[in-house]
Design brief:
Elements lengths: L4 E7 L3 H12 L4 E5 L7 H4 L3 E2 L12 H9 L6 E2 L5 H14 L2 H29 L5 E3 L2 E5 L2 H6 L1 H9 L5 E3 L1 H7 L9 E5 L3 E3 L2 H14 L3 E4 L2 E7 L2 E6 L4 E9 L5 H6 L8 E10 L9 E4 L4 E6 L2 E10 L9 H13 L9 E9 L6 E4 L6 E5 L5 H16 L18
């Protein structure tokens, strides 16, 4: 039986896939989106909703690997690695350690300092084109530190952000109380970024972008992609139910599930999953004015239209281990101590899979097997933030035009 032929296939309906579909449509391409589960319900639905453009500092930083043993001794701390998954993580952790060397770290900061302005300008452009302005607000971001010593320890990172053009101010207790009343008195040191942007709800925002693509002619197919094969005119996408489609362009934006599909084309990606946890409390649980980063504790509290989201922490546990919601409970317990009037009842717990590369840079690249297949995965904590820039770069690659940004740091072949 002949395989149906389509123009462009986008694998994944998370925020990266939604942006890729949007930008391909802007180039006049017809698009089919293929989603393995519920539309936009993966990692894109459970993030904090922060457009974190100033976050140019990678987690793989000098000294981070030496802090890890201390974190790992606390099963509910900011980093967890279940013993049953430790051996499988060794290759990824080795590359993570190498990415934290000073020269590699500096290169990543430089790449992010170029990526983030593109991400911001393209995001604002997409919001204007799609009529989603009401789903984004300028709340400002308040980074909080337990002590002057911990703020000083972060001063080099903040200086790098300032050098990259981001504006912020150091604030003391009186300013903190004005910016966010009701915080525990221990928080006397912070940084306020006035331009901090927040989407109303990450699921609603992503789903609205998918719906916009569909309203512009995109089709949606539910199914699990098992492999991609090059063809004379593009690529063939095979699904687990036996269906297959041939397309001139295929974009692999399957998040944490992208690794095995890329492998079907002979491309190796050391992609792992950071299992993120959160609890979303009902609206009104706390009079939250803006995004709060509790930097010494590895979690954030953000105001969404669906409620107050308390989330963060990293568990390196793959795709198959059951969730450990004690991590959500530990963050919520700390949030109650830091926000004394927080009403912590009635929350919804969530666990999702952040697709993370050891060097903290995504893969945005043609496949080594064929330029008809373009990879767009591995954004870690910055999928929402970098999504529009990624969509722009994907469309540039699909059109075989000069990308808006050099893709050399994002190539799949960097791990050979």
């Amino acid at each position: 039986m002949n395989n149906p032929s389509v123009d462009a296939v986008v694998i994944g309906s998370g925020i990266i896939g939604a942006m890729a579909a949007h930008y391909l449509q802007q180039d006049g391409r017809s698009v089919m989106m293929i989603e393995r589960g519920e539309v936009s319900r993966g990692a894109s639905s459970g993030n904090a909703g922060i457009l974190a453009f100033p976050e140019i500092i990678p987690i793989a930083a000098p000294g981070t690997i030496w802090k890890a043993p201390k974190w790992l001794l606390d099963p509910l701390g900011p980093l967890s690695l279940p013993p049953s998954y430790a051996l499988a993580m060794v290759p990824w952790l080795w590359r993570f350690w190498r990415a934290g060397a000073r020269a590699a770290f500096n290169r990543t900061v430089e790449v992010n300092a170029k990526m983030m302005p593109l991400a911001r300008s393209e995001m604002l452009r997409v919001i204007g084109r799609t009529g989603l302005e009401k789903m984004v607000s300028r709340t400002g971001t308040l980074d909080l530190y337990d002590s002057e010593e911990s703020l000083f320890a972060a001063s080099t990172d903040w200086e790098a952000k300032r050098n990259a053009g981001f504006e912020f101010n150091r604030v003391g207790r009186s300013e903190i109380e004005t910016l966010q009343p009701g915080l525990a008195p221990q928080f006397r040191h912070g940084i306020f970024t006035p331009d901090g942007l927040q989407v109303c709800d990450p699921y609603d925002f992503t789903k609205a972008l998918v719906d916009h693509a569909i309203s512009c002619g995109a089709s949606l197919r539910i199914g699990e992609v098992t492999r991609i094969e090059p063809t004379a005119s593009g690529a063939r996408v095979a699904l687990s139910d036996g269906a297959a489609f041939e397309a001139k362009t295929v974009v692999l934006a399957g998040g944490a599930w992208s690794k095995s599909v890329a492998a079907s084309l002979g491309d190796y990606a050391p992609l792992e999953t950071e299992r993120g946890y959160n609890t979303t409390l009902p609206p009104g649980a706390f009079p939250l004015q803006r995004q709060l980063y509790f930097n010494d504790h590895g979690f954030v509290v953000t105001p969404l239209s669906s409620g107050i989201r308390v989330g963060g922490a990293v568990e390196l546990g793959g795709l198959n281990l059951p969730p450990n919601y004690k991590r959500s409970e530990a963050m919520l317990k700390k949030a109650r101590a830091f926000l004394p009037t927080l009403q912590a009842e009635g929350g919804r717990q969530w666990m999702g899979f952040r697709p993370s590369m050891p060097d903290c840079l995504p893969v945005i690249s043609p496949s080594s097997a064929t330029p008809a297949v373009i990879y767009a995965f591995g954004h870690g904590h910055l999928g929402l933030t970098q999504s529009a820039a990624t969509g722009r770069l994907v469309a540039d690659l699909a059109a075989r035009r000069q990308p808006a940004l050099s893709i050399e740091p994002f190539r799949i072949g960097r791990f050979r």
